Amino acid sequence: CREYGKHVYDDVTVPSYVFGEKPTIKRIDKCMHKAVSLIVGGERVTDGEFPHMALLGYADGEPRDYACGGSLVSPQFVLTAAHCLYPRGYGAVKFVKMGIISRLQNDGNSHLFNVDQIFKHPEYDPKKLTNDIGLLKLDTFVPLSERILPICLPQLSLTPAKAVASGFGKTGATESASQDLLKVTLDRFSQEACQEPFGTRVTITNDSMICYGHHSESKDSCNGDSGGPLQIYNNDPYCTYTQIGLVSFGLRKCGTIGTAGVYANVYHYLDWIENIVWHNKSMEVS
């Protein structure tokens, strides 16, 4: 994570005009993050604010179909939800778009990468909505910069009082998907408070799921945000985020005041992620 953070600096050699004096190195800060104190009830992000954010695509040719989010966790792997790997009506995810803050963005900052391999958690259960996590291996290494940078993974279980979700999903239950990348700050909900509106339809498990919504305002993640990150801003390492969750599921009417969306707890799956991304051990490939 600290290594990734180095990409927000440029070291520039400043020559000395004094005889015998060596040139000095000036460090230029290129951090584009804005420390944040549809996504439903969200606001547009600034350029480079979430450099790990990925948009998943499913159709060849133009126009391309986008249906889920994800996050870059290494120069070649994107973390997302298992239900985003082969969503109904779309087929397998085929490519990932990064460096953007708009779906239609197609400038020098926008980069498209093909998916080489798809990894689904071996215990994913689409009926119980458990272990909803997957990984995408890209067919090339992503060139890192201040606009495209992996997110940090948690090294301990984190459930802060507030966290930030980001995505290109619907801005309301009856609204269309956002054309712009949005962010929203959410409140932590207890397992009991999270479970109540779901009744007996689904069981919220304390270890593998975390819940975030808003107690007094219509703020939430929604359809189309699936697989995207729930994150907190780091002061150390500088100019980085840590991903604590990823969007899994929620109520049909997203944004209902006093309710929460459900996120896969990234820390719970850390060993599984690391075994694929960094240790190259034999795991299930879908």
UniProtKB/TrEMBL annotation:
One of its GO terms (biological process) is proteolysis. Coiled coil: none annotated. This is CLUMA_CG000973, isoform A. PROSITE patterns: TRYPSIN_DOM, TRYPSIN_HIS, TRYPSIN_SER. GO terms for molecular function: serine-type endopeptidase activity. Residues 39-278 form the Peptidase S1 domain. It is found in: Secreted. Belongs to the peptidase S1 family. CLIP subfamily. GO terms for cellular component: extracellular space.
